[in-house]
Amino acid sequence: MTPPDTRTVVNRYLQALRTRDAQAIPELIAADAVYRIPGSHPLAGTFSGLDEIVQKFFAPMGALFDPEAAYSVEVSRVLVDGDRASVECVTRSATVHGTPYEIDISAQFTVRDGKIVSMREYFDTQYFARTLFGQDR
Question: pTM to 2 decimals?
Answer without folding.
Answer: 0.93
